[in-house]
Amino acid sequence: MMSTDQPNILIIDDEASICKGCSLILREQNCSVSSRTTGKDGLREALAGRFDIVLLDIRLPDIDGMAILASLREKKPEIQVIMMTGYSTIQNAVEAMKGGAFDYLAKPFTEDEIVLAVKKAIEDKRLRDENTLLRKQLFERFDFNNIVGEDQGILDIFERIKRVASTDSTVLITGESGTGKELFAGAIHVQSSRSANRYVTLDCSTLSSSLLESELFGHVKGAFTDATYDKKGIFSVANHGTLFLDELSNLNLEIQSKLLRVMESGEYKRVGDSSTIKTDVRIIAATNRDLSELVSEGSFREDLFYRLNVFPIRIPPLRERKEDIPRLAYHFLRLFCKETGKRIEGFSDDALALLIDHSWPGNVRQLKNAVERLVIMADHGFLDRETLTSHIQIDNGSDLSAPSHVPETWEELKSLKKHVLENVLGEVEQKFLVKALTECQGNITHAAQQVGMQRSNFSTLMKKHGLSTDNL
């Protein structure tokens, strides 16, 4: 049996016996089958109906099969056409395949041959349909309409992307964590000539050096202890497409050297293999670190930096594009209201002013997470200042100045001390943590060392304030 989803097949052949025989065979394979014995009727039916596959005789009394094939390729390119002929020659086969036929059957063919040809055509169509859907989803996700912003800096980036997308130039995207570098990389891909091919992303900060090398270049069986089978690398998977290398500053010098070789020669070797493999991949790289500084420190190859820095794009942090904060806040509000089914009209003026004045060290990602939290916690149809300050930490100018009211009893003094510790000092603690983490690009160990704390104590303080590196 071929599939629980019935493939819809049309047979066009002037021999009634062929139509009947093929229909019987394919219906046994759970296919829905129609047939026509003239070219005109067959072409009319194919164009009017919804067929997955057409079995088409190459020689018909009224219309040449190749002419029908050409018409189907032009008007119904999604249909898989399998040509049939009793006059089998290599020339016929080559002509049919050049004309866009999926396969070619020489009469007389066996039951197994027609079943196999149809199975291959169905599987190929399924993969094509999946790829079409994935491309559609990719276009929807990385459309410029999903990158909210009318700040002049963002508009200038849109213009630069339009210019570079049509080329094969390497692009280096820089910016702080949370600025949306992957969105801009995806926008370059979907507007490029490679948009019909694979867009593959790899976060270079998530894998160890040994796993990263295998992930990028693949390996052969026996290359290392756990290499029990041959594995294709990302450069093979992304061939003719685009590879987005996020946080590539985490690559060690050895992998940097191999990446440089691929970029310069289009060749690489799988781990444990001596033969070279050709690849044609466009690279878009991103980092939240200054690569020129890493070059000066000796932890990043200068030649690779220049090879990557062909067309640099800097994504500004949210604090440099404050006029976009209201647009982004309402964009995320609509998004999460749709997801949760809640009806929240918007933000009060003073709440919006708080959002605009906040420093947003975690940039757009932090704003998105904050709005999601507000939507989840909201009990009213409007998000006001009190709601914001109750559920998210906002810069509001609080300090450690003495209160205007002096306590008159021991209980009042204890209550005041508790208030100061929990609210004022707590806010300072949180800012202290966020500042340290931001300066260390979210690395908890480095942040703890920088401020002179044990990592465990630093982590405990983060948990107290509900902080994680994801919401910076």
N-to-C CA distance: 53 Å
Question: Largest sheet, described in full?
Answer: 5 strands, parallel
Total strands: the figure is: 16
Could you say what the CATH topology of the largest domain is called? Rossmann fold
CATH architecture of the largest domain: 3-Layer(aba) Sandwich
Strand order, largest beta sheet: 2-1-3-4-5
* Low-pLDDT ranges: 397-404
> How much of the residues is beta strand, in percent?
5-15%
Average of per-residue pLDDT values: 85
Helices, strands, pairings?
Blueprint: E1 8-12, H1 16-27, E2 32-36, H2 39-48, E3 53-57, H3 65-75, E4 80-85, H4 90-98, E5 103-106, H5 111-141, H6 152-165, E6 171-174, H7 181-190, E7 199-203, H8 209-217, E8 218-219, E9 231-232, H9 234-237, E10 242-246, H10 253-265, E11 267-268, E12 277-278, E13 282-287, H11 291-297, H12 302-308, E14 311-314, H13 325-340, E15 346-347, H14 349-357, H15 363-377, E16 382-383, H16 385-391, H17 410-439, H18 444-451, H19 455-464
Parallel strand pairs: 1-2, 1-3, 3-4, 4-5, 6-13, 6-14, 7-10, 10-13, 15-16
Antiparallel strand pairs: 8-9, 11-12
Helix pairs in contact: 2-3, 5-7, 6-7, 13-15, 14-16, 17-18, 18-19
What's a concise summary of this model?
With 472 residues, this protein is α/β, with parallel strands linked by helices. Helices cover 49% and strands 13% of the residues.
Keywords:
16 strands, 3 domains, Rossmann fold, 472 residues, alpha/beta, five-stranded parallel sheet, elongated, Helicase, Ruva Protein, domain 3
